[in-house]
Amino acid sequence: EEMVEMRTVDGQIIAKFPTLVVNQLRHMVTRLKYTNDLPSQISIVSTLRGEGNTYITWALASIIANDLQASVCAVELNWWQPSIRFSSVNSQIAAVLDSEITLDEAIVKTQDPHFDFIPAGFLEPKKRAIYARRDDLKVLIEQLKERYDFVILDVPAILSTSASIPLASLSDHCCMVIRQGVTQIDSVQIAIE
């Protein structure tokens, strides 16, 4: 049973992705790559909080980096619900926007030489919607698109904040994660609209 693991440079496991998830994502990536439809910039969104878009962001980035040997940067833009596993990491996209650190300092390397990421970091609630619409965030994402073959953005749930729309629009394509059997169809339709 094959499991893909995401590890820090020093070998600490950040996340494990089980065979079922790996196989489904590999099938999707292979199909899209074969038809030349695999986008190089993708925003991963969900309808509601807790549907797994952060998990899918990291899994998809790991699989693309591992299987295609392509350079990938996953960027967490969910200041509303940042990943707890990266709370101790000093590198943060918010710190770059505040000119506290450079983009190079914000990039976190993994054991896979093709896979880097940038955690969201803490951002005061009153700043979140403002930062989501800042021109320098667009410039920063464009810089990442020039450096990496793939840039995958982890965006907050569409129905949780109005800032999700400008954040999702920072990439060329959008992938919606929906928790089957849990999320109401009406909610999904509203999010898609």
Question: Your description of this structure?
Answer:
This protein is α/β, with parallel strands linked by helices and 193 residues long. Helices cover 39% and strands 19% of the residues. It contains eight helices and eight strands. It has a six-stranded mixed sheet, sandwiched between helices. Strand 5 and strand 6 form a beta hairpin. Helix 1 crosses helix 2. The longest helix is centred in the first third of the chain and has 16 residues.
Could you give a quick summary of the protein structure above?
By secondary structure, the chain is of the alpha/beta class.
Largest sheet: 6 strands, mixed
Low-confidence segments, given as residue ranges, are none
Neighbour order of strands in the largest sheet: 5-6-4-7-3-8
Helix percentage range:
25-40%
Cα Rg: 16 Å
**Rounded mean pLDDT score:** 88
Structural class: alpha/beta
Assess the beta-strand content as a share of residues.
15-25%
Query: Helix-strand pattern, N to C?
Result: EEHEHEHHEEHHEHEH
Shape: globular
- Number of helical elements: 8
**How many angstroms does the end-to-end distance come to?**
39 Å
Number of β-strand runs: 8
